[in-house]
Automatic annotation (TrEMBL):
Domain spans labelled Carbohydrate kinase PfkB: 1-297
Any one Pfam family match given in the protein's UniProt record, by short name: PfkB
Annotated family: Belongs to the carbohydrate kinase PfkB family.
Source organism per UniProt: Halarchaeum acidiphilum MH1-52-1
A GO MF term: kinase activity
Protein name listed in UniProt: 2-dehydro-3-deoxygluconate kinase
Keywords: Kinase, Transferase
Highest taxon of source: Archaea
Coiled-coil positions: none
Entry-linked InterPro entries: Carb_kinase_PfkB-like, KDG_KDGal_kin_Halo, PfkB_dom, Ribokinase-like
Record field: transmembrane: none
Length: 317
């Protein structure tokens, strides 16, 4: 039995070194990357027994994905398909005034046809928690239904359900996303959202605390976590609000920071910590991720504790 099971697409990430332009690049780093596998890997490295579920093409590229996920800290339990392709994305890192650019090449990926009937759903039913994100239902009509069915199945089995809104404007519009997301909310125990997504996609107003309270009151979530970028995060739980500032970090690669935060939060919650301690731990994991290339937080519990225990002079004691 796994502590945490996740479901979603994992792509292959191709990126030129440093801040080189893609059009001039002569080499590309080649890594696996996907919100749900990122969370499984991150939480797995921090003490949980984790598994990532998906559907992949039976090809060298599909096997590259599973090998990468498993080498970094999570079990990959996938359905192999003779149809559909392996999704990829290209990322061009940049500093101000340029902006980092992501180019998706994921149409007709094998995962877009995944259904509960072909997935190992018994793993979800016996897990402590099940996680997926708003990226998954954005990929196809089939995955809208599959996401809803998996959340409902988990809830019925007594598995804690965790969902990150994780809105991607290159996948769908706010008008397309909102009704789908809200249709999933009744089966979600723990909701994570960026404050900007709560405003722009869910139509909420006010600061992070008001957003968290409004979401909890309207949908009955057990916990709502609202991230605020450089301002840190805030959580509503059982009527109490907890704020957590961000830890300072020199940013090398910001992609995957949100997944690192969620992985850290779930690692501590599922190991018995309260929301305040889990939120602080999550912020530390997110800060460490910003210093690491790639999508996953390849960190150890000792490194996280080092951030938490660092004194004002920057020395871990």
């Amino acid at each position: 039995m796994s502590d945490l099971v996740t479901f979603g697409e994992t792509m292959l990430r191709l990126s030129p070194p440093g801040q080189e332009r893609i059009e001039r690049a002569t080499e590309l780093a080649f890594r696996a990357a996907g919100a749900e596998s990122n969370v499984a890997v991150n939480a797995g490295r921090l003490g949980l027994d984790t598994a990532w579920l998906s559907k992949l093409p039976d090809s060298a590229l599909g096997r590259k994905v599973t090998a990468s996920v498993e080498s970094e800290g999570a079990e990959a339990d996938v359905v192999w398909s003779d149809e559909g392709r392996q999704g990829t994305y290209y990322i061009e890192q940049a500093s101000t005034p340029r902006t980092t650019n992501v180019i998706y090449d994921r149409a007709d990926a094998a995962v877009t046809t995944a259904t509960p009937a072909e997935l190992p759903t018994d793993r979800i039913e016996t897990a402590d928690a099940f996680y997926t994100s708003g990226i998954t239902p954005a990929l196809s009509e089939t995955l809208v239904e599959t996401t809803g069915d998996l959340l409902s199945l988990a809830r019925d089995a007594g598995t804690t359900t965790v969902f990150d809104v994780n809105y991607r404007s290159k996948l769908w519009t706010p008008e397309e996303a909102r009704p789908v997301l809200e249709s999933l909310f009744p089966d979600i125990d723990v909701l994570v959202t960026a404050v900007r997504d709560a405003r722009n996609v869910l139509g909420l107003e006010g600061d992070a605390e008001r957003v968290a309270r409004d979401l909890a009151e309207e949908w009955g979530f057990e916990t709502v976590v609202v991230t605020r970028g450089a301002k840190g995060a805030l959580a509503w739980h059982a009527g109490d609000v907890v704020e957590q500032p961000a830890f300072e970090a020199d940013t090398h690669d910001a992609v995957g920071t949100g997944d690192a935060f969620v992985g850290g939060f779930l690692a501590r919650r599922l190991q018995g910590d309260g929301v305040p301690a889990a939120l602080e731990y999550a912020a530390a994991v997110a800060a460490l991720k910003r210093t690491i290339p790639g999508d996953t937080a390849l960190v150890t519990p000792a490194e996280v504790e080092g951030v938490l225990n660092r004194s004002d002079d920057g020395i871990a004691r």
